[in-house]
């Protein structure tokens, strides 16, 4: 057995985990904007906490999908063709959310801003739910035949597994965003986020914990996966204790640790499967039968070794530059943003 397919399975797992951790609080902030406050200034504080980084975080999603396509084309083809409905809905959610973030401040009317606030929240909810559903289905299984084709109609994916995965990512995003806002915002936003992290965040993490345990039950579960689950539980407890003490830094690390170890447990528990078949285990896709050729994986490995450190350093630098809290005093009064042509006159 060649090591490169295993290396790239681990790499793809890292990319997905990175996406869930970084984009998770982005999506959660978008959802919090819709229900946690009606204050325009507070909503703008929340939006400004993710303003410099939200689009960069989405690169992890693109990179994870591209890595799946290049390293495991059979996995990519079967998963994306079977789940074209939820993935298309997720794409619509990404577009709506991006448009909302960019256009919300273009016109200063209450109706305009309220509409786009709800679009940001709805788009964030759709993306989180659909991505969670897709990842849950690839970890538990889909009805595919020996050719990797879907067995059943276009909505065969809509199962309790998909719902659990969707709720898991939505819940984690809300909890993760609460600790992020406590760390990055000040004033009323910080206070509300702290209360949410202390009171409701543990409940939000329950679906993710059930998903991780379900994967172990479905596939036998490895010792490493159970160790990750134990570490995830410990991290969540420490994060909750820190949130109750209003220690925002440790609360953020604790809930992020839950996401890191919980997602790690899911990928470790499904290995060496990449897409189990619920029709017949003989049709399962694994890291061995779904991988690309050795030459392709070798070239990709060289490129990744050179490019990945540069990308990580740049993203770490951007977070460092924008590390300060966003306070209400930093937010100017709402005003009309005129097009450049009109400003020049």
UniProtKB/TrEMBL annotation:
Keywords of this entry: Cell membrane, Electron transport, Heme, Iron, Membrane, Metal-binding, Transmembrane, Transmembrane helix, Transport
Where is this protein found? Cell membrane
Query: Which is an annotated Pfam family here?
Result: Cyt_bd_oxida_II
What GO terms in the biological process aspect are recorded for it? aerobic electron transport chain
Q: How does it sit in the membrane?
A: Multi-pass membrane protein
Q: NCBIfam families, per this entry?
A: cydB
Q: Which PANTHER family match?
A: CYTOCHROME BD-I UBIQUINOL OXIDASE SUBUNIT 2, CYTOCHROME BD2 SUBUNIT II
So what family is this one in?
A: Belongs to the cytochrome ubiquinol oxidase subunit 2 family.
* Annotated protein name in UniProt: Cytochrome d ubiquinol oxidase subunit II
Q: Which organism is it from?
A: Microbacterium esteraromaticum
Q: What is the lineage of its organism?
A: Bacteria, Bacillati, Actinomycetota, Actinomycetes, Micrococcales
Q: Which gene encodes it?
A: cydB
């Amino acid at each position: 057995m060649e090591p490169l397919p295993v290396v790239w399975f681990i790499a793809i797992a890292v990319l997905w985990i990175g996406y869930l951790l970084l984009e998770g609080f982005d999506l959660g902030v978008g959802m919090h904007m819709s229900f946690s406050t009606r204050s325009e200034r507070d909503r703008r504080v929340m939006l400004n906490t993710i303003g410099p980084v939200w689009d960069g975080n989405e690169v992890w999603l693109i990179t994870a999908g591209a890595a799946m396509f290049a390293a495991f084309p059979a996995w990519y083809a079967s998963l994306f063709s079977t789940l074209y409905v939820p993935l298309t809905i997720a794409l619509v959610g990404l577009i709506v959310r991006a448009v909302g973030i960019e256009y919300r401040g273009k016109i200063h009317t209450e109706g305009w801003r309220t509409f786009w606030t709800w679009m940001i929240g709805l788009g964030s909810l759709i993306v989180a739910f659909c991505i969670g559903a897709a990842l849950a289905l690839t970890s538990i299984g889909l009805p595919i035949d020996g050719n990797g084709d879907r067995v059943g109609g276009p909505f065969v994916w809509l199962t309790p597994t998909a719902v659990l995965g969707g709720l898991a990512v939505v819940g984690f995003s809300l909890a993760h965003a609460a600790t992020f806002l406590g760390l990055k915002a000040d004033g009323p936003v910080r206070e509300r986020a702290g209360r949410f992290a202390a009171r409701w965040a543990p409940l939000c993490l329950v679906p993710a914990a059930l998903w991780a345990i379900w994967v172990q039950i479905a596939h036998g579960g490895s010792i490493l996966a159970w160790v990750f689950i134990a570490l995830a539980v410990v991290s969540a407890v420490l994060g909750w204790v820190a949130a109750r003490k209003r220690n925002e830094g440790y609360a953020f690390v604790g809930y992020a640790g839950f996401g890191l170890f919980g997602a790690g447990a899911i990928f470790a528990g499904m290995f060496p499967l990449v897409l189990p078949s619920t029709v017949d285990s003989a049709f399962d896709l694994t890291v061995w039968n779904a991988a690309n050729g050795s030459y392709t994986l070798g070239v990709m490995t060289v490129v990744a070794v050179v490019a990945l450190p540069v990308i990580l350093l740049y993203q770490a630098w951007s977070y460092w530059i924008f590390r300060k809290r966003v306070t209400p005093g930093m937010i100017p009064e709402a005003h009309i943003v005129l097009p450049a042509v009109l400003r020049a006159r």
